[in-house]
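ok new one. same drill as before - structure tokens go in, u give me an amino acid for every spot. 495 of them this time. try not to just spam alanines like last time pls lmao
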């Protein structure tokens, strides 16, 4: 009794075996030639939908040219995926209580090859299941001896032609594997970070310049303080020297467009050895590059004695303690909070509708043409934002007062003549009310010319919309954590 049921695995395996057995994927000599080298998939895992799409397109092109009598080769191969494979092998060894360093280089490499031979053919078999018409007799592996020799030859040839050179550059570094890793191997994640304000004493002066950083330990490798050349707040400080707190090393205040007047305090510490943007600033300004970390993420001998040998996070804690003892941290900083930028078209659309209604009802009737990215804010105990305005040219530390002090005058911010857009309306959405302190407060001049302050009672879902030139602050949180979403809407400069 026969069955008409179609069993795809039986049919597909039979057909594919026939193709391979009869050499139908091998190039047949012809004056017209066509070839593709497969982007070699890593031997560390299995195919995903991206592989299926990419290889299906290559297969279509290969079969098309083969059917049109081209000498056609689709060259297959796999990638050793060095770091990823190493991590998997180390993880497997760890289950048996064995570490890489216990084996030594040669024995560990043997274990890698054993793993590759056991698991490395999975992807090849998956490609065959897809029907890929590669010439499998030519299958290659990136660690094959002939390929390794070819790579070495290319590097030698390029070096002899002076097309490559050796130099110190910044790399992504893995402190566990103790190796450089590519950008593609970096898992980019947004994390909440504490912003620390540090006072750098100005040489031969009793004054300070304040910078904001999320990584205070890297100050030990600072080689400059940068300010924006258009930021008039610091024009008298450019060219002067500051003393790095705790390191007692002198560095110069320079100008560079990288410094954003509206971020932090407007002054930024430059650590070329430990930040890609700082490295670029260092190259432009010919700054010294000082590495303060060992390959395993500890503080090296380029740092002062108290911090040598400490893990970077332990060093951070001790540095903050020493800064506090020396009163070099900004206890009355402009802002202490954690922020994260994000885009949410749906949420932003709702906000925009509310802004348009408020703009009309309140009689502002500002020309609003665009919004900035949304900002999620988190204020923990002690977190605050001093008196300020959001208006262009008067943002963050451009005009600030202590939590106790009130401004003597509150004239409307005169917007500079700028191209593009300026902030006109600000929005704050209260996400919770289970905290104490952290009031949203406003300050205006009443009809008698006296300063009047008032606050908005925090309630979940309250949306506060106000002109960006109005002075406002977030008072210190005394209990719990305050969460909000902040947005700004701008338009052409005021006339």
């Amino acid at each position: 009794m026969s069955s008409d049921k179609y069993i795809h695995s039986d049919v597909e395996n039979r057909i594919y075996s026939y193709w391979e057995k009869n050499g139908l994927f091998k190039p047949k000599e012809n004056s017209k030639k066509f070839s593709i080298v497969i982007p070699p998939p890593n031997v560390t895992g299995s195919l995903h939908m991206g592989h299926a799409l990419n290889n299906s397109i290559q297969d279509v092109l290969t079969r098309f040219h083969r059917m049109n009598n081209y000498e056609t080769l689709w060259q297959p191969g796999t990638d050793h995926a060095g770091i990823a494979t190493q991590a998997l092998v180390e993880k497997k060894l760890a289950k048996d209580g064995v570490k890489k360093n216990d084996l030594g280089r040669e024995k560990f490499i043997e274990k890698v090859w054993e793993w590759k031979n056991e698991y490395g053919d999975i992807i090849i078999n998956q490609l065959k299941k897809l029907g890929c018409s590669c010439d499998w007799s030519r299958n290659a592996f990136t660690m094959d001896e002939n390929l390794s020799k070819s790579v070495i030859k290319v590097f030698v040839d390029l070096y002899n032609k002076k097309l490559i050179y050796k130099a110190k550059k910044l790399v992504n570094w893995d402190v566990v594997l103790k190796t450089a890793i590519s950008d593609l191997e970096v898992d980019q994640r947004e994390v909440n970070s504490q912003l620390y304000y540090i006072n750098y004493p100005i040489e031969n002066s009793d004054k300070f310049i304040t910078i904001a950083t999320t990584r205070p330990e890297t100050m030990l490798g600072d080689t400059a303080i940068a300010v924006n050349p258009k930021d008039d707040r610091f024009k008298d400080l450019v060219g002067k020297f500051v003393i790095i707190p705790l390191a007692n090393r002198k560095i110069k205040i320079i100008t560079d467009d990288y410094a954003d007047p509206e971020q932090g305090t407007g002054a930024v510490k430059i650590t070329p050895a430990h930040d890609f943007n700082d490295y670029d600033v260092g190259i432009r300004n010919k700054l010294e590059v000082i590495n303060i970390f060992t390959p395993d993420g500890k503080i090296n001998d380029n740092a002062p004695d108290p911090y040598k040998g400490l893990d970077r996070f332990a060093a951070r804690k001790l540095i903050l303690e020493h800064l506090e003892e020396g009163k070099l941290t900004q206890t009355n900083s402009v802002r202490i909070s954690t922020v994260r930028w994000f885009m949410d078209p749906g949420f932003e659309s709702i906000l925009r509708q509310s802004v348009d209604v408020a703009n009309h009802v309140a009689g502002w009737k500002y020309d609003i043409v665009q919004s900035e990215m949304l900002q999620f804010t988190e204020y923990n105990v002690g977190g605050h934002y001093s008196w300020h305005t959001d208006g262009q040219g008067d943002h963050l530390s451009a005009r600030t007062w202590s939590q106790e002090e009130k401004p003597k005058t509150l004239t409307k911010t005169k917007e500079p003549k700028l191209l593009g857009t300026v902030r006109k309306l600000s929005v704050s959405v209260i996400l919770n009310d289970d905290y104490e302190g952290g009031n949203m407060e406003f300050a205006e001049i009443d009809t008698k010319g006296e300063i009047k302050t008032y606050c908005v009672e925090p309630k979940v879902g309250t949306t506060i919309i106000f002109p960006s030139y109005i002075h406002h602050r977030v008072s210190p949180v005394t209990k719990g954590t305050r969460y909000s979403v902040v947005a700004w809407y701008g338009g052409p400069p005021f006339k």
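Residues 392-419 have pLDDT under 50 and may be disordered. and btw The longest strand covers residues 482-491.
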